[in-house]
Amino acid sequence: MSLKETIKTDYLTAYKAKKETKISVLRMLQSAIKNAEIDKKEELLDEDVIKVIQREIKQRKDSIESYKSGGREDLAKKEALELDILETYMPKQLSDSEVETIVKETISKVGANSKADFGKVMGAVMPQVAGKADGNQVKEAVNKLLS
Q1: What H or E segment, with its residue span, contains residue 42?
Q2: What percent of the chain has pLDDT over 70?
Q3: What pTM was estimated for this model as a whole?
Q4: Residue 125 main-chain phi, psi, to 5 deg
Q5: Which residue blocks in 1-147 are alpha helix, DSSP H?
Q6: pLDDT tens digits for range 18-68
Q7: Measured distance CA(118)–CA(145) in Å, rounded
Q8: Which of 4, 16, 19, 59, CA to CA, is 20 to 30 A from 136?
Q9: Using an 8 Å Cβ cutoff, are 99 and 138 in contact?
Q10: Fold annotation for 3-87
């Protein structure tokens, strides 16, 4: 079953169980996926759906920070609940040590040996960890290993 079908099935289940938060999050997610399909003019593959989910997760994280800095803990809590629901549809995330291992292998492959090769290493690592690791996590590992 594709990720898109899983989301639709989970939406129907949540709707029948009257889980309001999950219903609204999955409805929003289905809408974002549909908009991406309209933009792309074709049906999205699972990798593309994951990118849409990542974008929604990033929006939630940014909103949480904004709400907390604005003293709106109630809204930050709501966004955190939505974030938890969205994260269930992401593939298992890599640990810091796993990311470092991938970065070490890539550094040796591309022959990087200084901070000047940062872009070369990032460009080679990101496609390998797409959807499985956050860009900031990769950036920290590359900076650590190139210094």
Answers
A1: none
A2: 100
A3: 0.76
A4: -80, -45
A5: 3-17, 20-40, 46-69, 73-87, 96-110, 118-129, 135-146
A6: 999 999 999 999 999 999 999 999 998 988 998 899 899 999 999 999 999
A7: 10
A8: 4
A9: yes
A10: Hypothetical Protein Yqey; Chain: A; domain1 (1.10.1510)
